[in-house]
Specification:
Elements lengths: L1 H19 L19 E2 L7 E6 L4 H9 L6 E4 L1 H6 L1 H9 L4 E4 L5 H4 L3 H13 L5 E3 L7 H9 L3 E3 L3 E2 L14 E6 L7 H10 L5 H6 L11
Parallel strand pairs: 1-6, 2-3, 2-8, 3-4, 4-5, 5-6, 7-8
Protein name: NodB homology domain-containing protein
Organism: Psychrobacillus mangrovi
């Protein structure tokens, strides 16, 4: 009798774990908030992450994106650039390069409370899904924005380091989230960026913050 009860208990535990823990975490991440309350994440704990703020560039970006190899940096892209560059967005999606939304300056979301919703809807129409992460262009996140992003299950990401044009290639430490500007008015040299990407072992935003992995197990029939 004890053996039967033990066997039944083991099966129930196994079944509960099977349905609760996904085989691949990426399938559940876009659905749930990754923080327990409205907040702005700026640092990880498990490794190094490079994020790219993209609002300008065409020819150089085409070469850069086509040549990118995994592990990829995480792109924060303005809706305007997304609309101007459908062919490059297609390449990024085919390569599974992570894309999130780069918004406007933080004060804009106080002036227009509906702006955030308009922007994520526009992103969803272009990309096919809501952004998992959102960042303002000036890294200012008013509490009003934090609350509305929370309501729409979009996470806010700042950074622990910002690569200023003219500075040497940054040296990253464990937990760092680096921002790289690729704007018309402020733009890091692509050759330097490629050099950094080749010299550091990178983690995704989620891996750096939560220690998540993309490994999965297949249960045989």
């Amino acid at each position: 009798m004890k053996t039967k009860l033990l066997l039944i208990g083991t099966v129930l535990v196994f079944l509960s774990l099977f349905f609760i823990i996904p085989n691949n975490y990426s399938s559940m991440l876009p659905v749930f908030q990754l923080t327990e309350k409205p907040t702005v994440v700026s640092k990880g704990t498990h490794g190094k992450t490079i994020t790219i703020d993209l609002t300008f560039g065409k020819e150089d970006m085409e070469t850069f994106i086509k040549d990118l190899q995994a592990p990829y940096p995480h792109f924060f892209i303005s809706n305007d650039w997304i609309k101007r560059s459908p062919s490059l967005i297609k390449i990024m999606k085919e390569k599974s390069i992570p894309i999130s939304l780069l918004g406007q300056d933080g004060a804009k979301y106080i002036e227009d409370p509906n702006l955030f919703k308009k922007e994520i809807d526009e992103f969803e129409q272009s990309i096919g899904e809501l952004p998992l992460w959102f960042r303002t262009k000036d890294y200012v996140f008013p509490m009003e924005l934090q609350k509305i992003a929370w309501q729409h299950e979009v996470n806010l990401l700042s950074s622990s380091k910002y690569w200023v044009k003219g500075d040497q290639i940054p040296k990253l430490k464990k937990g760092d989230i680096l921002s790289v500007p690729l704007h018309q008015e402020e733009r890091i040299d692509i050759k330097q960026l490629n050099q950094l990407l080749k010299t550091d072992s990178l983690l995704s935003v989620e891996q750096n913050i939560f220690g998540l992995t993309t490994k999965s197990k297949t249960i045989p029939d």
